[in-house]
Amino acid sequence: MNENRLGTILIEAAIESHRQLGPGLLESVYETVLAYELTARGLLVKRQVPIPVSYKGLQFDEGFRADIILAGIVVVELKSVEALHAVHRKQLQTYLRLTGLKLGYLLNFGAALMKDGIVRAVNGLDEDPLRVSATLRDK
Known about the structure:
Layout: H1 3-21, H2 27-40, E1 45-55, E2 58-70, E3 74-79, H3 86-99, E4 103-108, E5 118-122, H4 129-138
Parallel strand pairs: 3-4
Antiparallel strand pairs: 1-2, 2-3, 4-5
Helix pairs in contact: 1-2
């Protein structure tokens, strides 16, 4: 399954989780429920994955923890805040660069409507932009 298909499934699962729970809970609650939804859809989900950072030829295990790595190829960063800021988007782009993965999502479960809390970021991913925008619009 490619990144774009996984992204579609991820968005569907996030919307379902948000519809059931609503906004305003702790990020850890949404992480648990989203992981359940994705696993129920037959996907491999790893939570709180440590990602080392390389610096000047050295590797530091104290890099960061990705909230979710979906099927080994999509980074998912979760938030439960009133509004996303530029730093949240930069964080996701940095995670993509450091992992070498091509697709990431920033999901803000604090948004009143989940579709308003979805940010998609790519790192050299070949994609069909019409299909991606249609997927988001239909939600």
